[in-house]
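**User:** You know discrete backbone vocabularies at least as well as I do. Would you mind producing a protein record, from residues through to fold? Write it directly below this note and I will take it from there.

**Assistant:**
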Amino acid sequence: MRTYRALSQSELQLSDAEWAALSEFVADAQQQIAATDGTDRIESYPPTIENDAAGPPKFDPGGWVGVYPGEVRVYPGKINQLEYEYLLDAVAGWFELWDIPTAAAVLPMVNSGMLDTRSVIVGYSSALISFTEEALAHRPPTNISRETTTGTMTKGSLNLPRTIAVQARGSQKIAYDELQFSLDHPINLLLVRFHIEIAQELDGLIEQSYVMTETLEEHLDYHRGFLAREFTETLQDAAIQRPFSDPDMLSKTRRQAPQGLAELVDLWESYLRDQTLSIDFSRQLDIGLKPIEKVYELWILDVLVEMITDIIGAAPELITEDHDTYAFEQGVRLYYNRALYSHSQIIDPLFDTNPGRPDYAVAVDDSIVWVGDAKFRHESGIGLESCQRFLSYVLDLTGIETKPTGSIIYVGENQAQPESISDSVTIEKLPLRPKHNTTQRSPLQERPESCLSL
């Protein structure tokens, strides 16, 4: 189910168990979001389960997009899916450059991965449990072999040629062929291996986690119980040794799988892909919870770095460890989400307080010449508080004598409409969204070009 608005359990088409898992996940997400409060300014309220007196409770994702339990995929409402995927690809590039602390500060829930990893692993655990229950409803596949044995009594079919040969040497024993049934079948070993892998993942998550532990422990108990109940340690060792990451081995397992059991190979391959995609930041961003406002903000940062690089003719010479300062040639600096105490001309010196952190600021020779703010909103949704805060950034960091320009960048269809509020200060609203990137980009390009007339 794909959604962005608040929906009830029936509207989401979730079972009672899925709704319970979603409710628990939302509660855990709220805790983790609250724990990161103060590390960055996130205006989007967290996902909630709303109790409606006039109807059933509803799941409201707030501004947090991503994949929730029950395969509930939350997409942003102000752009289409292609635009959203475009933003994720652009932002993924930053994650490939950032170290873990930096990425955690910008998108803490995505990078820490705890809720996301739990969601993914519990999802595979649930699918594996469902598959296992269906498989156990039928007799598991076996390997059948014929073994010739000698003894005083036959326990199989008489092997006359072998019996004659044995008794010709003076023995009174007879030879017989006995059928051997073994669970050492590729699909069984893959099933065992899958349970071992998921159990190990869950065990690790439980050690690191302080939320969702009850759900994790319930799943872990099933996997451990299945292994202890159904298969010997010898078979478990054989499953661990079998190279189930090898494509040829998986193809062989799929061919030998009885009807209906080959889907286990597909599930395993998907799990392996997600394991390797722990380095694929685009996939991580797609799955993980994130405030869409930050994704949009990071995309604008990517656009600004590219623009200034084109104007200067060279990439940044220095990028700080926190990736909040991009130093270019000729004394040009782009600040991202950084408290600029040394540039504050009113708030810090006069009130001795934090001057706040504008989304973007461009400095030339240590003087702020432009301030920008990204808003994942339509023009009509930019409220008074946001405007007042942005205006304080512009006036505090630049000073009236510099004839400052501030740009509010938002999601819109129209073209830019600069609005001068005085002869010395210009505040403009610039729409920019991926599908109009080419046509809407020019007005934003003019800001650094005019400010960086070096």
